Amino acid sequence: MKIKLKANFKFPGLAVLAMSLFSAAAGAQDFPNKPIHIVVPFAPGGGTDVLTRILAQQVSEEFKQQVVVDNKPGAGGALGAGIVAKAPADGYTLYVASTATAMMPSLYKNLGFDPIADFAPIALIGTSPFILIATNSLPAKTLPEMIALAKAKPGTLSYGSAGTGSVNHVTMELFKVMAGVDILHVPYKGSSAALADVIGGQVSMMMDTVISATQQVKSNTVRALASTSAERSPLSPDLPTISELGPKGYEATVWYGLVAPKGIPDAVAQKLNMQFNKALGSPAVRQRFATLGAEPVFSTTADFGKLIVSEEKKWTGIIKGANIRAE
After folding, report:
1. Which of 116, 201, 256, 286 could form a disulfide linkage to 125, CB 3.0–4.6 angstroms apart?
2. What does 255-310 look like in DSSP terms, one character per residue?
3. Judgement on whether residues 119 and 169 belong to the same structural domain of the protein
């Protein structure tokens, strides 16, 4: 599935937004009357955490109620998801779902929850591609040259990841299948360790986040080969996509969104959706997202729910085909 969310989900006009907010508020007049907690399933300081805190601050001002970000890292995000799945379905506990969430059922044998059956979609936050970066010592200077080298010398090139079953591991396995190449996977305990070895030349390449990769490319410590998005990002228009250079049709955009425990009153879910969409329309929020290499995306609860279902189906096939199991 190609994620062209920007084209599909348009931010409603102010008049429509006001009417929607009024309608939602009619069924949830006193919500929220206490702090809202958003569980981020990763450590503080990462991209997911920073994006969430930007939005939490804006929504807190809109609601005139505290929005607290709670970091619950562990098990690739599954620990935090499990906590929220068992929380009261009243709208006061939310979870930041992502592409990693859609991958969980295929990666973990005893997950303890179902990302679709146990959660209600609230709002999509945004999307961000990876950038495929290579060590400067790699003889291949472009993506086509790298693919040719990998095919000429199967198994001699390597790539690092944040760990077995991580998003940058799975997205690289998808690339290998589509490009028809054999590149050795070297798992690390976190992306920063993998990046250090790409810079040092111990591994040939890795899929890295936009903000991290861009900083390294600008400082000439690594070389950017291509972006994983379906189309060139306006944030880096000079960088071609993998699909442009080959293999055609490759796309691995990372998405982020908010979900709540299943059973949340629809009026509360819609009020949260509209408030987060409104926050995403703030020029200050959009500017701060851009500095992190993320694009805000506006969605309905229903459309976000459809995305989660389609993404789980997509990644299940890829993970099973590559025989990947989380550590």
Report:
1. 256
2. EEEEEEETT--HHHHHHHHHHHHHHHT-HHHHHHHHHTT-EE----HHHHHHHHHH
3. no
